[in-house]
Specification:
The chain has 191 residues and is of the alpha+beta class. It is built from 6 helices and 10 strands. It is globular and about 50 Å long.
Length: 191
């Protein structure tokens, strides 16, 4: 590393900080992800491109389910209209996932790798249990990190669909609770 080098870089952090920019980067670079659009104007773009049901997400600051709402139909969307009209919200395709997965990805200029894909159980939108998934979502997780030009350590959260497809939910650019099993795992620790 060069003196004064920040990892991950400022560009990567700016992209990850904004959930809509994250989604756009994934889709631009071929990382599998739900479609998302900004909630702006009369919201017609979101209705046309996303449809119902949809997930409403704050573009900034949301984590562990904070800043997330669901709209199964136009009537339910109307109950959130005042909240999202303030700006900085996005609409995202609802993913009928079968389970949530996570992969810890490390990436440098010379090496990229992953810890095993883990299944996560969420309680009130907070990761409560992590255990081996019996599947490998590393290709999707690495694609997500590469899409945001990320270097360093990343917790990548994914949805697994009924067809076995992996869709990137979001990235955390740091040690992550979905990888805490590495602390006592006996191998390399994410810390």
């Amino acid at each position: 590393r060069e003196p004064g080098c920040l990892t991950p870089g400022l560009g990567t952090l700016a992209t990850i900080q904004d959930k809509l920019l994250q989604r756009q980067a994934y889709l631009t670079h071929g990382a599998p992800s739900p479609l998302a659009v900004a909630l702006e104007g009369d919201f017609s773009t979101a209705f046309e491109q996303i449809g119902f049901p949809m997930v409403l997400k704050a573009r900034f600051g949301g984590y562990d389910g904070k800043g997330t709402r669901y709209a199964r139909n136009p009537e339910e969307f109307a109950t959130h209209r005042e909240l999202v009209a303030g700006g900085n919200w996005m609409a995202e395709q609802f993913v009928p996932f079968t389970r949530e997965l996570a992969v810890m990805v490390y990436r440098s200029k010379t090496q990229t790798g992953c810890f095993p894909t883990m299944e996560t159980i969420q309680v009130n939108h907070v990761c409560d249990q992590v255990f081996p998934s019996g599947t490998d979502a590393s290709a999707a997780a690495i694609a997500a990190v590469e899409a945001v030009q990320g270097y360093g350590l990343f917790g990548v959260e994914l949805f697994e669909t009924g067809s076995g497809e992996f869709l990137v939910n979001e990235i955390a650019p740091r040690p992550h609770n979905t990888g805490h099993y590495t602390l006592d795992w006996g191998g390399v620790s994410q810390f």
